Every structure is written in C-alpha cells, then in structure tokens.
Amino acid sequence: MRTQETLSGGEWVTSGDWIDVLDPADVRTPVARVPALPAKDVTRAFDHAERGFAVWKRTSPFERARILTDAARLIRERVEEIVADVTAENGKTLAEATGETLKAADFLEYYAGCARQGYGTLLHDARPHHRTHTQREPIGVILVISPWNDPLITPARKLAPLLAAGNAAVFKPATETPLSGLHLARALHEAGLPAGVLNVVTGRTADIEEALLDDPRIAGITFTGSNAVGARIRRRLADRNVRFQGELGGKNASVVLADADLPAAARAVVAAAFGQAGQRCTATSRVIVDRPVYEEFTRLLIGEVEALKGGPGADPATTLGPLSSPKQRDSVLADIARAVEQGATVLTGGRADTEGERVHGCHVLPTVLADITPGTAIWREEVFGPVLALRAVDGFDAAVEAVNDSAFGLAAAVFTRDLARAHRFADEAECGQVAVNTTTTGWDVHLPFGGFRDSGTAYKEQGDEVLRFSTRVKTVAIHLGAPESARG
Q: What 8-state DSSP symbol labels residue 127?
C-alpha cells in the first residue's frame, strides 16, 4: 500500500499513526495511507504558518503570480496521475475527475492574474493638497477546511486567492479524501512556495479539533461542509475576532415551466442532479414542474435517468460513480426509506446497486421520487446523493413560492422560453446562484459563488469577491505639501 507524507514547514513529514484511504468503488483494500497527525503537530503547523506569513506578505506580487502559474502548469502535466487518485479516493468518474483537475489549475492561473493587480482605490479628499487611497492587505494565517466531495477543486478555490493576496494557510483536507489536496500542495511546494506558507494537516478531526480551531494565530477560517459543523465553528468563534467564510448546505430547485423545451430541460436536470452521484452542494435535488407538462416531463426525465450507467469511476463507460463512503451510502438509503414511509413513490431506483462487483462498493441507483408534499423531509433536508424529488405546481408564482420555501438559498434554475419570466425568476428567487435554461451546477472560476440564508455566510468565494474575505482595507491619506504657487 502506498504511503503519502504531508507538508509542514516546507518538509514532507509522517507520524506514528496512519489513516487508510479507501476506494468507494471497492472498500475492501485501502489504496493509500496518510499520516494521522497528533494535536502537537497541528500547533507546529501554525508555528510554521506564522513564520511563513512574515515572509510571504512581503514577497513581490509578481513572484506570487509566478509560483501560482508554475503550480498550475505542474498540475496540468500530472493530470493523469492526479485524476487516478481523485477517482480512487472519491469515486468520481474519469471525466468528472479530469474536469476537477483542470479546473483546479484554472483557479491557480486566475488568481495568479489577480495577484498582479493592485488592490485599492484612489479617493478624493476634501482637504487641499492631499492624496488619499485605500489598499488591501493580507489578514494573516487562514485555516482552510475542505470537504470530501470536491477534494481538489475546493482547496484550489480557497487556497489560490488567499495565497495570491499574501496570506499563509493551514489546510485540513477531508479525512476520506486527502490525496487530492496533497497533489495541490506538492505542486505549490515544487513551484517554489516558501516554507511554512502552506501546511497540510492530515488527521482525525476528533483528535485535533481543539488544536485546529482554537489556535490564537488564526485570522480567518474558510470552511465548506455541513450546516451542523459550520454552526459548531461559528459558536467556537463567537467571542473571537476571526473571520468565517462558510459554504454550507443546499436544497437546490429547478423549475420547469409549461413553455420550456422539455427534452433539453430533462437532460439539464439529470446532469445537475446526478453528476458526481449528486454529491455537489449545487446539485438539483428538487424539481418543480408546471402541472400541464408534469407527466410529459416526468416521462422524459425517467428515460434520461435510466440511461445512466453505474459503476466504478475508473471504468470509462461509467456515468454514475459510487457515493464517497459506506457512511454516505447508508445515509442516502435511510433518507430514501424515510421518504417512502412518509408517502413518497419511487419512480425509479430507490435502493443500493449491488450488481456484480458493485456489491463491494458504495453504489446507489439514481432515484426519482414522486408524491412529495412540502412537509416531506426529503423535500426540505439535504441528502447529498443521487436522489431527485418531483412536485407539480400551478403556474409561475406557485413555482417561485416553492423554490423560496426552504431554509437554504444556494442555487436555483428555471426552464422557460419567456424572457420576462426568466428575469422575474432571477429577481425573485432567494438564491445566491440563479440559472436560466441551464444547470444549477458548473460555476466558473471568475464568477462569484455563494448562497443566501442557511447556505452560507456573507463572504463569497471565487471571482474578486473572495478578496473581501482574505484581505483587510487600509485607508492612507498623504499631505503633499502646498505647491510653490501657493507659498507666495
């Protein structure tokens, strides 16, 4: 079994304890192991980050840009190796893992460009002979906590902007999927990132949570994961001057109006609902259909769903990979069973996929549920799996009301040929991301990303909006002195 070291203080280190990394397509044999660092090594990582920040904040923005660009190049050169690990530890299809790897390189390149730009604004000053401006500065050491569902692209989305702005980081990858993030760390390290600027903590959260979250040198925490964990972090930070950026849950809806292109809508909804086996924060999990086209759309949708091919992600023929772990598989199956108990009807799927060798993996058949009411738990609670719930409504206003009848507000889509309704939907949907005639998933690197309500905090990710989280604003006023003509 392969052993992978972790990066701390510019060196690749191990520990006396290890975490096995499993392939969710076949959990019988670990594919690798990574160090299970103890709490004292977490504190040491913050020591390194503090020293690294002192160097990195004074490093030329052009040198930061060069390092990010070179790291992107290394990722592209190693795409096959990285894709293999993303698929092995997460279960994504080869196509999905390839897209994730290349997009991670895109993030590094985009923020390399941002690093070359000045962050600030020239301001008018009411006082004579004054020149005033704002400038943005890094905030310090940022703790990065990333999830298992996007184990490479999420760390890249978080690390690239904070590094471009001159911050240092302690990075905690998900215990289930550490290999992908370590590929990113290796590329940055080999591109010339100074020692201590990035430190990767692989470990069991229960053993290191206190050391990870309570270190007094933390200036900010960026976290992607569940609402329950996000709330716990918030409470922990309640009396501390620490910024928190949270990308949390979603219960994303797609609306299909009577005038929509139904075949195109069905294809888009299936792509949004079942890509990555539904394990995306932006995945469509609710479909709200105008009653006159409900039966026709449902027929088209089921046809698209049943054309999906389940299997191991490493098989090029697979279009629906396994869930990420036995725990996640069992959670999704329990959600389906509860929905049925509450009156839902399974139109397709609804059970584990145990055909052939898939019996050893975490496969769940793509599932579509009907006879759903607003009170059905699966209509309101995030499932994070290949499960889609359908409801019929009467007209546009009822559809918007159903979209907004949620604690979450991450992403929503509408399918219509009516431009006025498209604009009305964009105005009225209480979501941070709105799509028209396309999927709720797939937001590019330069597009600000984040949700409303319980889906996230006020700090957006991606684009230049993310710099509001990882920089602080300083206002500088300079008295230039009176010009010679004013001195008499």
A: S
